[in-house]
Amino acid sequence: MKILQVNTEKTWRGGERQTLYTLESLISQGVDCQLMALKGSLMHKRAVAMGISIIAIESMTDALKKLSNLKGRFDCVHAQTGKAHTQCVLTKIFHQTPVVYTRRVDFIPSGFSTRLKYKFTNKVVSISPAISSILNQSGMCSDSLIISSAVKGRNLDIERALKLKKSLGIQDSTKIIGLISALEPHKDPVAALKTIHELQKVRQDFVVLHFGDGALFDQVSDTIKELSIDQLYFQMGHHENVEDYFSIMDVFLMTSKEEGLGSSVLDAFNYEVSVVSTNAGGLNDLVKDRGFVCDIGDTQCLSQGLSLALDSSKESIAHKISAKEYCDNEMGVDLMASKYIDLYQGLINE
């Protein structure tokens, strides 16, 4: 079995990490895999460091050209992003290889060209029941297979996290709320700021570390000053190996308006950090009974959830135990990859 994974994104986000998780586990299970990635991207650099065989592309045109010339080289082409999905389907008439697409976003697809794209995809995978339901309701795909994203623990560099904490002047008695999300509209960072503004009205024993960058950086900076929370809300920007900082977090906050699943929430579960989240997309099913869940934009509810989590309430402790068990038993990387192997084998045997 020979599989090409396609992820040509410039940025590094949850989907890119899941792509490498999938590749690493597939290879360890004996599958012959290659990756098509954008030359010079973080995806490309990390895959090279892992020893993964790469087909490097330099542009959208280059991707289309190289995909078109792949006839007979692979048993299946797996598109890991929406952009890759378009590239793989547009060239299918030339490479004539079954196409699998993993959908990670929960916005409603529409349009004639999108409908055609799904029609010529051999199998669509949704990473959450919410995404599968959206595809069904939109009429794009009625038989989407659900294969969740996975979580993979590693030894955290606690000294690195403590060094950051010290550099920011955070006292040991101060609790830390963490966010790991891009500063983009669908992540709704402004809701996070308003939530923290509510929380500081009732307690001042915490700070917030928000890891991530994006188009709303300046707006977030301005809003932090307007709400007078600049002494406790730190914009950390992009950090490599950001998982290390779970070691100093007391609570993890997610305020998204749209979210396919929320792989950073899985990290919080795995590292036994309490979670407070909106119910956007796949977050509702994921966090329910494993964290505090609020309606999108309900900053009062989110603030109350944070306060309960910071106080290590009985409910919060029960959530953490349930979340860790869920990761250990159901969200392993090898389990995810084995489901893809079954999918590929089924397409090959058709």
Short summary of the structure?
This protein is an alpha/beta fold and 350 residues long. It contains 15 helices and 13 strands. The protein folds into 2 domains: 2-150 and 332-349, Rossmann fold (3-Layer(aba) Sandwich), CATH 3.40.50.2000; 158-330, Rossmann fold (3-Layer(aba) Sandwich), CATH 3.40.50.2000.
Notes on the protein architecture:
The chain has 350 residues and is of the alpha/beta class. The chain folds into 2 domains: 2-150 and 332-349, 3-Layer(aba) Sandwich (Rossmann fold), CATH 3.40.50; 158-330, Glycogen Phosphorylase B (Rossmann fold, 3-Layer(aba) Sandwich), CATH 3.40.50. 44% of the residues lie in helices and 17% in strands. The chain is built from 15 helices and 13 strands. It has helices at residues 14-28, 42-49, 60-68, 82-90, 92-95, 112-119, 129-138, 158-167, 189-199, 217-226, 263-270, 283-287, 299-310, 314-330, 333-349, and strands spanning 2-6, 32-38, 54-57, 76-79, 99-103, 123-126, 145-146, 175-180, 206-211, 233-237, 251-254, 274-278, 292-294. A 7-stranded parallel beta sheet has the order 3-2-1-4-5-6-7, sandwiched between helices. It has a 6-stranded parallel beta sheet with strand order 10-9-8-11-12-13, with helices on both faces. Helix 11 (263-270) links the parallel strand 11 (251-254) and strand 12 (274-278). Helix 9 (189-199) crosses helix 13 (299-310). The chain is elongated. The relative contact order is 0.13.
